[in-house]
Amino acid sequence: MTNPVLVGIDGSPQSFVAARWAGREAAARGLPVLLLNVWQAPAGNVQFSPDPEGLRFWEETRVREAGKELTDLHPGLSVSARQESGPPMSVLLEAAAGAELTVLGSRGLGAVRGFFQGSVGLHLAARSDRPVVTVRGGAGADIGQMDTVDRDVVLALDLDRPCGPLIAFALESAAARHAAVHAVHIWDVHRMYGYAAPSLDPELARELREERSRLLATTLAPWRRHFPGVVLRESVIAGPVAQSLVAVADRAGVLAVGRRRTHPAGAVRIGPVAHAALHHAACPVAVVPHD
Question: Which residues form the UspA domain (predicted)?
């Protein structure tokens, strides 16, 4: 059985933009789409709350509308939809375990909306064992704004801890999209050398940067052989990691960043770079877990 592209639908405009993006991605990869609405009755004073059953029916209707929109856009695409009850985080996390990837809507650039409301999306990205993609969108977003299929996939690499699943995800996504991969390593001199960075000898700085460039090329060499049809470009960029990465990915089709499943203290969390990308990148962001 083929794992689907899972989409969280909560009825918001952001979740519909996510569904459109997921439909294109699924069609390019030859995968089915599963639209999932997680219903949880609103908490609070029942006397002053909207009718819970009416809200549940409205969300169920929105899921059906999203499904019809995807089948109209992609006639050959297999689309299924369902509504489940329970805590959104728990239900989504369980469903994500059986998905190829999970797609959620986000307003991005600051405050988060849609399934990111209440940090559900952040928690899912931090805990899922499968890739989670967040797609920025709003009430004014349309299909044209989400036309990112043939744009570069930007691959953010930490050369001290390169991870195969992250590189594979970027290359597989690019191959399906007939797009290129731009592999980027951000070299933050100040983070590496602290107050000594401004006084770093220019010749030594050049040699160190060239060393990072050679390491990046060596890391990607076997992947070039596995994906000969994908154009793979490499860049080593000097500057603050999060800020530089967001700038590089400004016009990307997808920004792929890694997330370690566990940290030394045993905590499960998103690192600062992935966190910044989720909140500030204009393009869809894929968080790919790795050991």
Answer: 1-136, 152-289
